[in-house]
Design brief:
By secondary structure, this protein is α+β, with helices and mostly antiparallel strands. Helix content is 44%, strand content 20%. It is built from 4 helices and 4 strands. The two termini are 19 Å apart.
Length: 137
């Protein structure tokens, strides 16, 4: 029988806090979403002044990264050669990163609210906050 690792709320909270800290230091109003391996939302947090449209986009970026297991930036780059990827109900916009541990997809982090490369910086900061927790096991 195989073991499955899962994200918990404490880990999602740490990721969101780090993402918000990075965004606040740059005065970027964003929404940060953390999803589990199935793409279901664990935690969603919209900063003051973040666009209401950023909520669904952050969720979909996180969901895509979790299900596919690669950053959404890579999917965006792949579209040029494989436009059929657009028909797969995935978001191909930078700002989503997968959460991986021991070869397993644990979930994803998605950020929306500013330019896509800025969203990605926030998502990477959120992911970096999880690294010590993931290495503790």
């Amino acid at each position: 029988m195989r073991s499955r690792f899962v994200l918990d709320l404490k880990e999602a909270e740490a990721a969101v806090a780090a993402g918000h800290a990075e965004a606040a230091s740059n005065q970027w109003p964003v929404t940060v979403a953390v999803v589990d391996a199935s793409g279901a939302v664990i935690l969603l947090s919209r900063m003051d002044d973040a666009s209401s449209a950023s909520v669904s986009t952050a969720i979909e970026k996180a969901r895509t990264a979790a299900l596919v297991g690669i950053p959404t930036k890579l999917i965006e780059a792949m579209i040029k050669d494989r436009p059929g990827l657009l028909s797969m109900d995935r978001v191909a916009v930078e700002g989503g990163v997968p959460i991986l541990f021991h070869g397993q997809k644990l979930g994803g982090i998605g950020v929306s609210g500013v330019q896509s490369h800025q969203d990605a910086l926030v998502a990477e900061a959120a992911l970096a906050a999880l690294q010590p927790m993931l290495k503790a096991d």
